[in-house]
Write a structure and sequence with these properties.
Blueprint: E1 2-6, H1 13-17, E2 26-29, H2 40-50, E3 53-54, H3 58-65, H4 76-89, H5 92-100, E4 104-109, E5 112-117, H6 135-141, E6 147-149, E7 157-161, E8 164-168, E9 182-188, E10 191-197, H7 201-209, H8 215-227, E11 246-248
Parallel strand pairs: 1-2, 2-3, 5-6, 6-8
Antiparallel strand pairs: 1-9, 4-5, 7-8, 9-10, 10-11
Length: 254
């Protein structure tokens, strides 16, 4: 079975539609369908029609209930300034979907036990946990899964701790890798591959220019997309199409 694992779309429809998934059996989404970006209704519809599994993210919560997303400090004002736009752009059905999404899923698939959450198991919506953080040891000790799937940081990684493989697919709609390419993970035959791809970013920029927000906020959103908004410890200097590594679920310690 081939499964595409995506996260943090942030209403970037052009990036989502360019996802190369014609040969996958399922699509799993780890949250943040909306927030920041220009086409939340269209993204929610795409996810509703195509995703097999969907988890709630902090921005899904914020838009669904009109509350603070408690995002990173550098993006607090931008998140607040775009939330009203997002709430006005979605339908009642869209909002109902956002408010009913689960905050975690646990299940077995073949020999593996999966635990899926947007942030971390002990704080499913809000805590940012970098790849190298010591916090991960506590998190894997709290669950019985062999695979822990997370998003939220917009930075892809694969890390093994004991019997648990932690996989973050990065962000489809607002990557923070220092490159403007959308990110996702592919699961097949017990292994994960972190991948990135180009998409028609000009379409998203045009849509952002049509948002009823200030030009300053539009410029900030466009800058994030164009630069890949690197945040430590982002990887740099890697060739697109050759991003990161393949690790077997039963692979070596990192």
């Amino acid at each position: 079975m081939r499964i595409a694992i995506i996260s943090d779309i942030h209403a970037n429809l052009a990036a989502l539609e360019a996802l190369p998934v014609t040969d996958v059996d399922q699509i799993w989404c780890l949250g943040d369908l909306v927030g920041y970006g220009p086409q939340p209704h269209e993204v929610i519809r795409w996810i509703r029609e195509n995703a097999t599994l969907v988890i709630r993210g902090n921005h899904d919560l914020a838009v669904g209930y009109n509350v603070e997303p408690r995002c990173s400090q550098s993006l607090t004002f931008l998140a607040a300034n775009t939330r009203n736009y997002t709430m006005a752009a979605i339908s009642d059905l869209d909002r109902a979907l956002l408010t009913t999404l689960p905050i975690r899923r646990q299940f077995a698939l073949g020999q593996e036990k999966f635990y899926c959450v947007h942030a971390i198991p002990s704080d499913p919506l809000f805590t940012y946990c970098a790849e190298t953080s010591d916090q991960w040891q506590h998190e894997v000790n709290c669950i019985t899964a062999t695979v822990l799937l997370v998003g939220h940081t917009h930075t892809p990684f694969i890390r093994r701790l004991g019997r648990t493989l932690i996989v973050n697919p990065g962000s489809v709609g607002q990557p923070k890798t220092g490159r403007p390419f959308a990110c996702y993970a592919l699961y097949e035959d017990g292994s994960f591959l972190l991948k990135e791809y180009e998409y028609p970013i000009g379409k998203t920029i045009d849509a952002i220019r049509g948002m009823s927000i200030s030009q300053e906020d539009q410029d900030a959103l466009i800058s994030l997309l164009r630069t890949g908004a690197p945040s430590p410890p982002a990887a740099t200097g890697q060739n697109r199409g050759q991003f990161k590594k393949i690790l077997a679920v039963g692979g070596r310690e990192r």
